[in-house]
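hey m, so remember when u said the tokens were messed up on ur end? i reran from scratch. heres the input so u can diff it against urs
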Amino acid sequence: MIVRISPVALHSSSSMEQDISPIEASVPPDKSILHRLLLIGSLTRSAFRIPIDSPHSISHDVIATMLALESLGVPVEFSDVGIELNGVGRKGYRMPSHSINCANSGTTARLLLGLLSGQPFNSTLTGDSSLITRPMKRVAECLAKMGANIATTQSGTLPAKIVGQNLHGAEISLTTPSAQMKSAIILAGLFADSPTTVSGKIQSRDHTERMLSSFGFGIDISDEITIRPEVVSDLDEEIVYAVPGDFSCAAFLFATAILLRKRVTVKNVGLNPSRTRFLDMLTLMGAECEATNVVEEWNEPCGDITVFGDRLTEPIEPINISGDDVPLLIDELPILMTLSIFANGESGFRGVSELRLKESDRIGLVANQFKGFGVEVEELEDGLIVQGVPERQLSVAPIIHGGDHRLAMAFSVAALFCESEVFIEEAESVGISYPNFYSDLGRIAGQKMVDVSLV
């Protein structure tokens, strides 16, 4: 699919004459939560109904998890009411008849490494051309401390062959903050013969911990995390779990609202504190944000978030990202880098080398794309330094996103401010996380600015 992005005039009189009424939008269900709901729910004896507006709004990554569970004998399917899942219990998985294809989903692959390492059968995980280049060795090595037997390729990637073992409780200290690695260990701990403790750098997304606790599994959370496998989940037989909207998807709409000086409200978005550091960054840049109608279900807060781009009267301020902020912003960094193009001065992104290990080398691709746009940018081994210029007009350059959904979306937002129209090839990659992205971008920028009819 090819998408054409037409330019808008930043702060021009023509843009000010556009409709400035508030815009409401919704985003797909949070895929971090939905992955875990499917996987952890399968370990219970409960029947889950997960309301979904449309199967077309579900990210391709989540579909990969559903197909993986089907291959393990778990009943899961789309229905008129959303997604229906029937848990099979901790001992209910069956040996898959073929390799499990995790497609482009690193979350699916890494969490399954934990879940399958303690099963009484062997299995193999593989993925698409992108996923099989991404590192799995760190997870396999951590799980090996519990007795797991996982063989990756020589370069530490998929395919990974898992020889099912009797796992043992262990004390594991993380040296890298990674929600996926942490979750793989926690899930493997459910199949160990004694408690497992995870310590060290555990300050990353905590959806797994919250869900296990709310479902009645044995997990203690303080300065460290302890999994007690002898505790059996005490869920009801039938569960309705409404997954909040994906904050990382909403971030692209919030950034667009700021650049176009629009007021945008995204309804029913997840407000887990491990996910919302992006709003703090927007505040530092000078934007006003507000959360309303906040509720909490299953230990996960959610609400409506409004970004008042229409109240901005000055250029946005530059930012500096490093240290403990990085794991709390890992998926929002590409769109933050895009915002920094238009900031009033130099922004720094350091200590973000993990971006080189995502669906693409995000640091390298962002640096090259920004240079094509005419932006002064310095590529570091572990990040970028971007020289921002307010009200700038970008040069037209080929969009090279490497099939990376977050880069395709970030570069599309930037393309609104190019000198003339820009074409985004392989735009279907946004479906990995946000199938309706271009429709929603058009609602904010103006439908004439985003043409998705070119195939």
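this time it looks ok to me. The longest strand covers residues 289-297. if urs says something different then somethings off w ur setup not the seq
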